[in-house]
């Protein structure tokens, strides 16, 4: 499970059914399970996303078992990163900087 910060003012892009539409655009499928949205893509058997608040998203992934090619793993990781960037407003570099700052502060 990973919690991602959502950029200030970005929540308007994912509120209501917008997050589900975004997941369907990126992964090609989405379903609702309680207060979470679930997709799958490539080697990722499930990608479960839950809005924790206007400033946080929780993402839980589960990988498929068996022999997985490096290409499939990289493709799935790229797709997940593209989704998280669209959903949070932060690219991978910005997310890494935020995580490092939180780790320094002891908030991770």
Counted beta strands: 5
- Low confidence ranges: none
Beginning-to-end CA distance, first to last residue: 13 Å
- CA radius of gyration is 14 Å
Portion of residues within helices: 25-40%
Provide a count of the helices: 3
Name the beta content range.
25-35%
Encode the helix/strand succession as letters. EHEEEEHH
Structural class: alpha+beta
Mean model confidence by pLDDT: 94
Largest sheet: 5 strands, antiparallel
Strand order of the largest sheet: 1-5-4-3-2
Apparent shape: globular
Write the SSE topology.
Layout: E1 2-5, H1 18-27, E2 31-33, E3 36-41, E4 44-53, E5 56-63, H2 70-88, H3 92-105
Antiparallel strand pairs: 1-5, 2-3, 3-4, 4-5
Could you explain how this protein is built, in words?
The protein is of the alpha+beta class and 108 residues long. The chain is built from three helices and five strands; from the N terminus they run βαββββαα.
Descriptive keywords:
108 residues, alpha+beta, single chain, 5-stranded antiparallel beta sheet, 40% helix
In short:
The chain has 108 residues and is α+β, with helices and mostly antiparallel strands.
């Amino acid at each position: 499970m990973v919690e991602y910060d959502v950029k200030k003012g970005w929540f308007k892009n994912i509120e209501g059914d917008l997050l589900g539409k975004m997941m369907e655009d990126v992964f090609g499928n989405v379903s609702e399970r309680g207060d979470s949205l679930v997709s799958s893509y490539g080697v990722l058997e499930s990608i479960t996303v839950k809005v924790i608040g206007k400033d946080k998203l929780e993402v839980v992934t589960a990988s498929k078992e068996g022999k997985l090619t490096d290409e499939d793993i990289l493709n799935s990781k790229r797709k997940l990163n593209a989704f998280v960037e669209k959903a949070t407003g932060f690219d991978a570099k910005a997310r890494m900087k935020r995580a490092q700052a939180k780790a320094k502060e002891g908030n991770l």
